[in-house]
């Protein structure tokens, strides 16, 4: 396990070699330049209009925007890829305390209400409907399932399923403790979830409700919140109490990778670059981890004390995250061109580029100037580095043959 504490500077350094120097041709020099000055990450922050709103969960919506929860403000927010924010509150119960959020299979966005034991649904136009769960459940995580339903966790001891029509069913058989937290759909057609308490566990539930738990390989102090499906077909989770990132195969084999710094990892998401990205609640930081376990820390462009929480891949090819204390939404621009293919989600509507000019009751459009241009953070492009290595080897071979 390696930690690249480069503070967002290129970590590749040419290694001096003894003996005869090898001349490098123009093509190889160009590849070297591209490899060391390859596309970087630009971090930009957008302030949430309502003060002290505690933005927590964030997810890409089927309408081409990002949607997030404002736990303290009791609102649902929408931010366009251009950074325009609109807030919605009409239809939310008082003290709902919305927490996690996800895009649904029905073209709407779904979220949990930890304060009122309800699951909420919001249309792209901002119309909110609530559906009750069992009393005292404390609903936390939520995700779209492979069966066309939404699946959610209940901290007090159950995994829930809700149909797009609002029919709720809860499963508890097979759970050995309470404290269910994050949930995601796996590549194996099952749902995978976390148990926060000590000892923490990783759970799997089939769409029929059969639950299996895994503990071997997890550090003993508890503290697992978020879980996501990775680009390698495995599940990845953030363990805040142990400052590790865990990888779980679909057969339940667990490996944890130390972050190498005090991070309090909370949110985690697969990125469009083939890596995993996670937030550090301690201070102002986000991280990238490769599927091989190599961690890079990013801090430039994030306001001090932000306490980054949720994170997701956006429809624009970038990463988006919430700053729970900083009261901002952050964008990590990866320089990746977003795909232009039409989404396959039923009920998808065209993206909206600006908030509604005349908002309905309960809607507060943003008039706050948006964040400054971010700070470019250069990083290596793995493909260009491989190209550089191949070109260098070819140059050396030609030199040997010439001599």
Structural class: mainly beta
| Number of alpha- plus pi-helical segments | 2
Q: So what's the oligomer here?
A: single chain
Beta-strand residue fraction: 35-45%
Helicity range:
under 10%
Q: Would you tell me the overall average pLDDT?
A: 81
Radius of gyration: 22 Å
Q: How many beta strands in the DSSP annotation? A: 31
Gap between N and C termini = 41 Å
Strand order of the largest sheet: 1-26-25-24-23
The biggest beta sheet, please?
5 strands, mixed
Query: Which blocks of ≥5 consecutive residues have pLDDT under 50?
Result: 1-39, 341-361, 363-385, 395-403
Shape: globular
Write a concise synopsis of the structure shown.
The chain is mainly β. The protein contains two helices and 31 strands.
Polypeptide structure, described:
The protein has 403 residues and is mostly beta strands. The chain has two helices and 31 strands. The strands form seven sheets. Strands 1-26-25-24-23 form a five-stranded mixed sheet, with no helix packed on it. Strand 15 and strand 16 form a beta hairpin. Helix 1 packs antiparallel against helix 2. The two termini are 41 Å apart. The N terminus and C terminus are likely disordered.
Which features does this protein show?
single chain; 403 residues; mainly beta; five-stranded mixed β-sheet; five-stranded antiparallel β-sheet; 2 helices; 31 strands; 39% strand; disordered N terminus
């Amino acid at each position: 396990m390696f930690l690249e504490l480069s503070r967002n500077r290129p970590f590749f350094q040419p290694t001096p070699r003894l003996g005869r120097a090898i001349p490098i041709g123009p093509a190889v020099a160009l590849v070297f330049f591209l490899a060391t000055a390859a596309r970087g990450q630009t971090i930009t922050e957008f302030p949430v209009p309502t003060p002290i709103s505690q933005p927590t969960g964030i997810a890409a919506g089927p309408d081409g925007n990002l949607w997030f929860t404002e736990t303290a403000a009791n609102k649902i927010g929408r931010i366009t890829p251009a950074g325009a924010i609109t807030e919605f509150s009409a239809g939310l119960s008082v003290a709902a305390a919305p927490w996690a959020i996800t895009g649904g299979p029905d073209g709407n966005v779904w979220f949990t209400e930890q304060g009122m034991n309800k699951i909420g649904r919001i249309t792209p136009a901002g119309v909110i409907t609530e559906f009750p769960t069992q009393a005292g459940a404390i609903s936390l995580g939520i995700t779209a399932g492979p069966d066309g339903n939404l699946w959610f966790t209940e901290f007090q001891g159950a995994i829930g399923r809700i149909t797009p029509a609002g029919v709720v069913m809860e499963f508890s058989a097979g759970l050995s403790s309470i404290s269910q937290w994050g949930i995601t759909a796996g590549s194996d057609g099952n749902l995978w979830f976390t148990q926060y308490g000590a000892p923490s566990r990783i759970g799997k539930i089939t769409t029929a409700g059969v639950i299996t738990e895994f503990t071997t390989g997890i550090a003993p102090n508890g503290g697992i919140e978020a879980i996501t499906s990775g680009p390698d077909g495995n599940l990845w989770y953030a363990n805040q109490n142990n400052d590790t990132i865990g990888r779980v195969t679909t057969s339940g084999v667990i490996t944890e990778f130390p972050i190498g710094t005090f991070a309090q990892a909370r949110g985690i998401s697969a990125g469009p670059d083939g890596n995993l990205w996670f937030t550090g609640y301690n201070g102002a930081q986000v991280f990238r981890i490769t599927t091989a376990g190599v961690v890079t820390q990013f801090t430039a462009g994030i306001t001090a004390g932000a306490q980054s929480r949720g994170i997701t891949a956006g429809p624009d090819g970038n990463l988006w995250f919430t700053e729970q204390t900083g009261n901002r939404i952050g964008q990590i621009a990866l320089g990746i061109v977003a795909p232009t293919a039409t989404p396959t989600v039923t009920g998808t509507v065209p993206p909206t580029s600006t908030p509604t000019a005349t908002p309905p009751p309960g809607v507060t459009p943003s008039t706050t100037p948006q964040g400054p241009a971010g700070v470019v953070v250069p990083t290596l492009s793995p493909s260009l580095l491989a190209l550089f290595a191949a070109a260098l080897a070819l140059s050396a071979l030609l030199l040997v043959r010439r001599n």
